[in-house]
Design goal:
Rossmann fold; 5-stranded mixed sheet; 13 helices; Putative siderophore-binding lipoprotein YfiY; 6-stranded mixed sheet; signal; alpha/beta; 13 strands; lipoprotein; 2 domains
Length: 344
């Protein structure tokens, strides 16, 4: 009974927040009537990741990105969004995006939109994907009442395809092609330096609390290692469910490899981003110290050989777009190729 009351109260607050957002949206629409009038008729139809046609402004000006990949993609196109959501388990955008995002307003977290803040920004387009609120039809419908909402892809999908849908929604296809061309150039340049490591195996681990999770091949970091030609251990050479795969301490050997890229999201989670902690490489180093206290961790090959590389968890162990992948490739060059301590 108590659970039902709490649930009812939660949805009452959501409904009230939505009504407030729609009210603010209506008011701000009046204030921006000249802009809207100029934009009337200047629309185009795009297809989202499900093939659904969505009518959007010809040149969107006030875009809200409702996930890390959509924020990443818009910033990669050189556009600063009107608003965005905090990164997974964070209260800010991921560290690798902070300089580009600047003072972009935060309008909720990946799973909890702030409808009032969204409506106040009077967006003309909202970009979402399968890492955010796509599995909540009520929230999707509410966002669609505020502005045209484009679904850009699903968790574990090809980041290139998801990025292409964002570029198309922004009417910036040519700019998107240039971003992908630069990515291909960076992959080729870095891959050529990795010949000494081609017979080694690489694991990507997120350490959260007192346990590990594996980042497999479907997430951007996994896709990047494959593009670079770096091998995964046999048990990790597979696609997962679009999220990290937990590993019990009894099976800690499952995370082992010749090298481990080791990250954390601190003590926070998607549902509790205020729990504290950090997701940068310094936090990864602190988590590595904690992991060494777990029985069996020091027996891992990568640990014995001092081949554990602390990395930024919000990039390596989360999800994103072309800027995240650029960060990963740059880290491979700096932290592996150019690091004398990591030579095979």
């Amino acid at each position: 009974m108590l659970t039902m009351r709490r649930s009812a109260t939660h949805w009452l607050f959501v409904l009230l927040a939505l009504l407030m957002a729609l009210f603010l949206f209506a008011c701000s629409s009046e204030d921006a009537s000249s802009n809207n009038a100029a934009g009337e008729g200047n629309t185009r139809v795009v297809k989202d990741s499900d093939g659904v046609e969505v009518t959007v402004p010809e040149r969107p000006q006030r875009v809200i990105t409702f996930s890390e990949p959509t924020l990443d993609s818009v910033l990669a196109l050189g556009v600063k969004p009107a608003g965005t959501v905090a990164g997974r388990g964070l209260t800010t955008v991921p560290a690798y995006l902070q300089e580009r995002a600047g003072d972009t307003p935060i309008v909720g977290s990946v799973g909890q939109p702030n409808f009032e803040a969204i409506g106040a920004l009077n967006p003309d387009m909202i970009l979402v994907d399968g890492t955010s609120v796509n599995n909540n039809p009520d929230v999707m419908a509410a966002l669609g009442e505020i502005a045209p909402t484009v679904m850009t892809g699903y968790a574990g999908g090809d980041w290139r395809k998801n990025f292409a849908i964002v570029a198309d929604a922004m009417n910036m296809n040519e700019e998107g092609k240039k971003v992908l061309e630069e990515h291909d150039r960076l992959v080729a340049e870095t891959s050529a330096k990795l010949e000494p490591f081609k017979d080694k195996t690489f694991s990507i681990v997120r350490w959260q609390g007192n346990g590990a999770s594996l980042i497999l091949k479907e997430l951007p970091a996994g896709q990047s290692l494959e593009e670079l030609g770096l091998k995964r251990p046999a048990n990790q050479d597979k696609f997962g469910g679009g999220h990290s795969e937990p590993v019990s301490n009894e099976n800690l050997g499952d995370i082992d490899a010749d090298y481990i890229f080791f990250g954390t999201l601190g003590g926070s989670s998607v549902g509790n981003p205020n729990a504290g902690g950090n997701a940068d490489s310094n936090a990864a180093g602190a988590s590595l110290d904690e992991a060494r206290q777990v029985p069996g961790f020091d027996q891992l090959t990568a640990v014995r050989d001092n081949h554990v590389i602390p990395v930024e968890g919000s990039a390596w162990t989360s999800t994103g777009g072309p800027l995240l992948v650029q960060k990963i490739i740059s880290d491979v060059d700096t932290l592996l190729v150019q690091n004398p301590a990591m030579q095979p």
